[in-house]
Specification:
mainly alpha, membrane, transmembrane, single chain, transmembrane helix
Length: 80
């Protein structure tokens, strides 16, 4: 396996990969915000509950990614 391929496989466990994951997860918050707004306008309780659960999942995902980012510290896969 080439060295470049090994680096690409390690991208997910790198700081850059973690930042990218955080950005894509946070981007999902825009869709959830639109879903909450629509549910409130339509007075749709079930859709509001679904959007709330999705929002909690996004917050939890960001917290997990932040914890992983702190764990990486200085031993970044792509830098070493």
């Amino acid at each position: 396996m080439s060295k470049a391929l090994q680096k690409a496989k390690g991208f997910k466990k790198s700081k850059s990969g973690t930042y990218l994951s955080m950005a894509t997860t946070a981007f999902g918050a825009f869709g959830v915000a639109k879903q909450i707004k629509k549910a409130r306008v339509e007075h749709d309780t079930l859709r509001l509950i679904d959007a709330t659960v999705s929002a909690v999942a996004i917050v939890t995902g960001l917290a997990i990614l932040y914890r992983e980012l702190k764990r990486l510290g200085d031993d970044d896969v792509l830098l070493g």
